[in-house]
């Protein structure tokens, strides 16, 4: 019987985890205590994950329509501030299982969005205390309002430009922070795709059972799900 491949035997995945760790150390919190705490928690959970040396679970490479934009997003990211992060992603890009994460996705969104989990309950690097991954948006994507109960979320923009809740524009090197239950809607520049790394931290139960559901307007207001 072939021995399972562990993280210590998979340098490409170790380097990718290191890039996540180093970015969450180097990026400024902007003086925000909740963001600083989240960054510290993400780093601590990555450190614990590496020490645990989990098995690397085989995944079936699964493209989606939006992955036709991945090469462009990676190329643009190399020219920005996250070159080493992009190179680490490129080393495993051919193995990624791209997903939607929703039971129902409109045809328009299915062509303009997908995510790939690196580490987590269903990722190749098995983790029960942290989820790390990538989300890719095609130019002009509108990602509907949604929220995550019990999950603290952040995005690091690696290429392209996005806006969240029309409250600002985030380019390469920016960090977007969403507290648990915070409703957020993402829009993307019409000219270029956008590639973001993301991290979720929360209880094991919340990470394992999180169901992604878009909000539905009620009496003129969106409802958090």
Question: Any overview of this molecule?
Answer:
Helices cover 29% and strands 27% of the residues. The chain has 225 residues and is of the alpha+beta class. The chain has a single domain, classed as Jelly Rolls, CATH 2.60.120. Strands 1, 2, 3, 4, 6, 9 and 11 form a seven-stranded mixed beta sheet that branches. Strands 5-10-7-8 form a four-stranded antiparallel beta sheet, with no helix packed on it. Strands 12-13 form a two-stranded antiparallel sheet. α1 packs antiparallel against α2 and α3 packs antiparallel against α4. It is globular and about 45 Å long.
Characterize the overall form.
globular
End-to-end distance: 45 Å
Largest sheet: 7 strands, mixed
Number of separate strands: 13
Number of domains: 1
Q: What class, by secondary structure content?
A: alpha+beta
In CATH, the homologous superfamily goes by the name: Jelly Rolls
Any idea what the CATH architecture is?
A: Sandwich
> What gyration radius follows from the Cα positions, in whole Å?
17 Å
What series of H and E elements makes up the topology?
A: HHHHEHEEEEEEEEEEHEE
CATH class: Mainly Beta
Uncertain stretches:
217-225
The portion of residues assigned to helices is: 25-40%
**Helix run count:** 6
CATH fold description: Jelly Rolls
Overall mean pLDDT = 90
Strand portion: 25-35%
Give a brief rundown of this model.
With 225 residues, the chain is α+β, with helices and mostly antiparallel strands.
